[in-house]
Design brief:
alpha/beta; 2-enoyl-CoA Hydratase, Chain A, domain 1; 7 strands
Amino acid sequence: MRGDKMNALDPAMFDAITEAGEKLATTKGVRAVVLSGEGRAFCAGLDTASFAQEPDPDAPGLSHRTHGNANRPQQAAMVWRKLPVPVIAALHGVCFGGGLQIASGADIRIAHPETRMAIMELKWGLVPDMGGYALWRGLVRDDLLRELVYTNREFTGSEAERFGLVTHCDADPHARATALAAEIANRNPHAIRAAKRLHACMQDGDTDAILQEESVEQDAIMRTPNQIEAVMAAMAKRKPDFGDV
């Protein structure tokens, strides 16, 4: 994807991630998927240089649904949860903001113990709005999740495992994820798909409302002049070469 920029998310990358997931959903013979990032990071989050500009007041807001129950950025994370087969995310380097929300769309997450992670959005004066609130249910204790969101503090893969955001830590997360995918692929594919549907039924009872509320809250920030100015000022401080991560 964009390994030279630590796979930071720009508009084209949102579309490419969603297209990859949707293609896998209709590809015959797929039994399990490993989701990883090329280069030295899983995903550094939002490419602020691509978004640090005044939004078009006449363009549809984030509350506009483009992919069923989700908007365009949300679908980049939700497409993996919607995929009919298990998805295992392999995390290394950094996994910040939107990158963590995309990883959270996977069924299982395996991280290098030293992976740098954060729910980053409050750093820019924004809220997590790529499906995080729907995907983190049942993973993280509520008060701990609130702390991580409110402070945008950084934590390691090892800490994330203790928090519940990561399933396992491994010195070679991609190899571990690939081995697990191979193990799952040897199971009855109909039963595996049925099991994933049952897990979705158990966990995602009110996803539509959560996704919509994320967008409403972010729209309120992005469409208030003094708020968007503060966001743009915060983004302008980000180094364009990602040298700070």
